[in-house]
Design goal:
Layout lengths: L1 H68 L8 H7 L3 E8 L4 E8 L4 H19 L10 E7 L2 E12 L2 E9 L1 H12 L6 E6 L5 E3 L9 E5 L8 E6 L3 H71 L6 H33 L7 E3 L1 H18 L3 E6 L6 E3 L1 H19 L4 E8 L3 E8 L20 H4 L9 H11 L3 E6 L5 E8 L5
Parallel strand pairs: 11-13
Antiparallel strand pairs: 1-2, 1-5, 3-4, 4-5, 6-7, 6-9, 8-9, 10-12, 13-14, 14-16, 15-16
The structure holds adenosine-5'-diphosphate.
Length: about 500
Amino acid sequence: MRRLSLLYILVGTVLSAAVGLAIYSYTVSNKLSNRERLVILDTMRELAAEKIVGIESEILKADQAVFDAVDIDNILEIDSLARHQRSVKSILVLDDKQKILPSGFVTRREKKAEIKRFQKLFETRVLKDLKLGPRTPTERSNLHKNYDGKPHLFSWVRKRAKGSDYFVVIETDLPFLVGTMFSQFLSSQSPRFYQVVNEEGDHVYGPLLGKSGRTVSLGFTETVSNWWLRVVQKHSGASASKAKRQVVDFSLIGTALGIIVIGLATLLIAVRRERRANELKSEFISNVSHELKTPLSIISMFGEMLASRRTKSSEQATEYAEIIWKESVRLSRLIDNVLDFAKLERGVDAVQFARGDFGAVVERAVELSWHRLTRAKMEVEVDIADDLSEVELDANALTLCVLNLIDNAIKYAADGGRLRVGLRQTDSRQVLSVTDWGPGIAVEEQTSIFDRFYRAKAMRLQPVRGSGIGLALVQHIARAHGGAISVDSEPGQGATFRLWIPTKGHG
Ligand code: ADP
């Protein structure tokens, strides 16, 4: 018992260690992949920031060049300035009353109607938003806004000349920005996709992408401040191989855990089985010793009576001698059982074949049991078919089988008062049936009773002694003949044991 609980403790410890190890490996692998993910996201964020700074500094540089170069006294020069800076679409110079100075407006727009429309838009709506005045900073300010559904980017500064303020406003060429600068900076050759979207998330530049893959979004700050740069990691082989590695990791962990659990379960089952076999063996030894002792003491008691002539009559002497004879038969049967069983256990073939008559074997076994049956007050009906052919058999072994089956009926089913022994032949078999009208056998035990040392639960509680090897031996002998044994029983209604052997040898 102590050994078993130690084993349970050991199994528990190994199992918890294995589960702990599996959990640890799982978390480590998860942590690593999380860390990897964070590193990738950080890199993507850094890249996005770098790209934004690159694009914006180009615009700022161009703007600053314009702001620095505009001179109210030499206003005509703005024309060449605008031509020079490709990102600039329009330059407007306004006085302190926010009126566009004569010759203070140049634009790349070519159609007159377009120029007029833009000037009107600027004077009626944009100017209000720029809030030009004495407080306007001398450093660059910017406005990124939709007018009539179209995005516009303005930047401006306040300048001073001859004691009064004037303002320089630049309109950035957004189609140029998107069409040329973005494609210059945001090349799709890299392992990432770049996409620019507006505040509503609508696509401005770049490939149209779903939301799949790792994405990082970063806003522009100093120029197109309503737009966002999105970086999407392309589905690279690296992420596929990572997923594959993870699957391999997890299946390895799972398999290792499974093997450990199966190994431990098998060990436990083996130990339990061994323990049960040991219990059965010791039960067997005590049963067999008892079975040996009982007939021996009967033989010695009646033998002594006969020897000292303590019998009242010659009938009584005959009766005692008969008792001695029957008990010695019982004793020798038990010894045969035990010896044959021992041979079986050692793997020695206990069966020797010769051509013979199964019917004669059955008749002899019934004859040998006659006295015991009469004493048990059991009526016997023997029904052996006439048309039996000779078969390959071991007469001694089969006699032992029939004796065992009859013995069992006497031991367990004498209450039924009847026994029927039948033998008939079918095409390929000779079938022996031994039927009693005793307590029968519980359905769940109908296969176990053929196991060595097994004794039915109900019988273990009764004073009927047994060794549990009889039916195991019968089954072995039947199988050695190439046949089998089975039982047909309904509890309370008796039992029929059927043993068949083939007519065409055991081959
Ligand atoms: P033993 O009789 O020595 O216990 P066996 O192997 O011959 O061993 O039988 C195994 C068990 O099968 C018996 O212990 C008994 O419980 C059950 N059994 C065998 N024959 C009968 C029967 N005719 N009726 C009821 N139970 C039986």
